[in-house]
Amino acid sequence: MSVSFSARSARGRGSARLAAGTLVSGLVATTVLAGAGTAAADGDGGTAPGHTGRSGATATIAGLKTYGAAVIHGADGDQQVSAGLFEMSVEGGGMLQTYCVDIHTPTQTDAKYHETAWSGTSLGTNKDAGRIRWILQNSYPQVNNLAALAKKAGVRGQLTEQDAAAGTQVAIWRHSDDVEVDAADPQAEQLADYLEKNARNRAEPKASLTLDPPAVSGRPGERIGPVTVRTDARSVTLVPPTDATTGGARIVNKDGEPVATATNGSQIFFEVPEDAAAATAELTAQAATTVPVGRAFVSDSRSQTQILAGSSESTVSATATATWALKGAIPALSARENCAKGGVDVTVANQDDEPFTFELAGAEYTVAGGESRTVTVPLSEDQPYDFTVTGPNGFEQRFTGMLDCLTRAAEIGTTTHTLTGPTPTPLTDTNLAETGSSSATPWIAGTAIALVVLGGAGLVITRRRNTPSDD
Asked: What is the pLDDT of residues 204-235, one digit of tens each?
């Protein structure tokens, strides 16, 4: 198996192809940080003070690159959409190929995505998530010998890249969105049927890089940790804290020796001088590796969730923090989105001998010395959240983000409002214009509007997605 990264746009078959484009939402939710003592929740191992705490790859979506057409059958009739492979550009270097797992949600132009665990997405509560990973491992682009793929799937006729991408996406949608959808091209439909029928459960892939736990605490004069490196990269570069306020904290191994690199399973510590004042230090780990097929990617801008189909060698990173104090409680807080519980799990570890009492979401909790406790904060779906944990002596830590745990179909209980990637078009007119531009500009329109070509930029008929209200 190998992965091919191609900038080639879809070509050929006239009515079976739709113009590529993405819908820009009028509402963009961003993560808010308020300096030291703040954090933002993430779906893979949580966070620590003063940073987002996200681990793995971060990328910007470039749009659909290889695709065909699909037909969604809904209560209000049929809708035609583009179905296929997206490309993402990784911060720091690298390219990703993805399929989407939320057919009714639009993809926002140039949306920023970050790698996350299935538990922080709709995949976390989907019993068929493992079957989606099997499809990814056994179809295009992981299998790029199209003749062999066609033979194995019993496809009659030639299977093109566009057919392979469309058929794979359709098979994924059938498991991710529980929607009635078919590929418009016969070869793509035959592939989709084969993949759907033969899919088997596969385990969730591990993160490309994490530091576990992402937050630790202790006393000056101690080695605070351990923090364990988990990665499939051959080597990880460790970037130690440089802030003068950290009092000379160093990154060391269990023997107290300074370390600048690590491998999978390495345990590292923050060594803090005995005379250091109370502070927080941050460690960053970076590596170059391929991201495992099946990893989820989410955005804070209500852009549809993606699942990884292929990766070049890409830059990945993770952070961990250490907090220390001379006296009193020294809690270490982290958070992760938990879609099974419909909220964010906030974990408080108390390294002091005395109990630590804190307030969260209007309630008071106590963690005994040497123990930890996890509290789930219930949240509204698809809505920005912002809450703060408070404690004695002015302690506070803030968490912000957005919970995106349901596919659009599950959220609104209907399949009549269909949006995805390039947006849907009613099947009343199958003689649609074709474009290879990945920078197509979407326009909102009524039921009848002419497609006009201006400087090669395709204008695509779209409908804006309705914003769900709070529960």
From this structure: 999 999 999 999 999 999 999 999 999 999 99
- Radius of gyration, alpha carbons of the chain: 24
* Residue in the structure block whose two tokens are 């996200």: 54
- This prediction has a pTM of 0.76
Nearest residue to 70 (alpha-carbon basis) of 427, 309, 466? 427
How many C-beta atoms lie closer than 10 Å to residue 316's C-beta? 30
Q: Scanning the structure block, which residue is given the tokens 């599950």?
A: 410
> DSSP state, 355?
-
Backbone angles phi, psi at 55, to 5 degrees: -130, 150
Q: Distance between CA 463 and CA 450 in Å, rounded?
A: 15
- What DSSP line would sit under 104-132, residue for residue? TSPPPTT-EEEEE-GGGSGGGG-TTHHHH
In contact, 49 and 37? CB cutoff 8 Å: yes
Instruction: Please report, as a single letter, which amino acid is at residue 395.
Output: F
Band (244; pLDDT cuts 50, 70, 90) = low
User: Contact 92/317 with Cβ under 8 angstroms?
Assistant: yes
What number of other Cβ atoms are within 10 A of residue 170's Cβ?
31
Is 164:138 a contact under the CB 8 Å cutoff?
no
Q: Measured between alpha carbons, how far is 161 from 351 in angstroms, rounded to an integer? A: 55
User: Comparing 245-249, 291-295, 343-347, 381-385, which segment has the lowest mean pLDDT?
Assistant: 245-249
Listing DSSP states for 117-181 in one string gives -GGGSGGGG-TTHHHHHHHHHTSTTTS--HHHHHHHHT--S---HHHHHHHHHHHHHHHHT---E
458: its two tokens: 């395709």
